Amino acid sequence: MSAQPLVLVTNDDGIAATGLVSAARAVRAAGARPLVVAPDRDQSGSAMALGEFAGVWVRADEVDWSGHGLAGVPVYQAPAYPATLVTLVANGALGSRPDMVLAGVNHGANTGIGVVHSATVGAALTAGLAGIPALAVSVGRQSKEVRWTLCEQVVAAVVAALALEPVPPGGALNVNLPAAPPTDPAGVAWRPLATFGTSIGRLERRTEPGGATAVRMVFDQTTRELDADGDSGALLRGEVTLTWLALPHAPRPDAGWRGRLLERIRDRWPRGGSPAAEIATGHRLVGSQPRHIPESLQEQPEHAVRSP
Predict the structure, then answer these.
(1) In Å, how far from its chain's centre is CA 288?
(2) What is the mean pLDDT of the chain?
(3) Where does the record place the Survival protein SurE-like phosphatase/nucleotidase domain (predicted)?
């Protein structure tokens, strides 16, 4: 990997998500070059969906993030799924092919078998399918207060480690952080994918005016007994979890790579947090407005992709 790798940063929470800014800052802190390309709205739960893709023009608007301390970082939003954006950028839509893809930081854990629905994970696996080293990063919702600065420092440590020990082909690295990551490097560990995630869904129904029935799913923190060694239980105990997600027919990374990566992450681990001012309760930003359309993704207005 190059001395200053180009890292595509995307997400499924949309361009206005705090976690997206945190991810871009982390990439830059790790000594890499962030390129942010994200959906113009929330696309959570779209997994590896491409939608109406073949032959459809996708318009990307440039966004000014200088107010977020990221002056000079190219930032684009587009009305498309995360996996679609990864596919386009991987094929040269904005010039150079990225050296790495970081999907996140998602606001909400992505652990257990439910990761198959996650568009954060889906974006990372799409990159892996294209042969680009990738990771998905999520922060749990055990607390309404997220220590974003400390999360950025942890993500920067992971990205810097991956620049030296790239993700092998055939999958993606799934990283989950508690809302207040541990300052002890022993608090990060490899964990297998758990049988259940950290939340459990339940169906609610109501009768609409006119007599029709409407239903919805709501999610609460799981009350199930979780696997002691799985990623879900470890996250709820306050660990930062590393989980390998393999694409079909892909070999499992050897223990040597897993051990070297873990050691490099721990070597770069933040030993202390920042003041209480770093704590934030929201996950939406204000002021991320589009500026102009880059020539490489311009299209005729009648072909512009709207909500997939």
Answers:
(1) 19
(2) 85
(3) 7-191
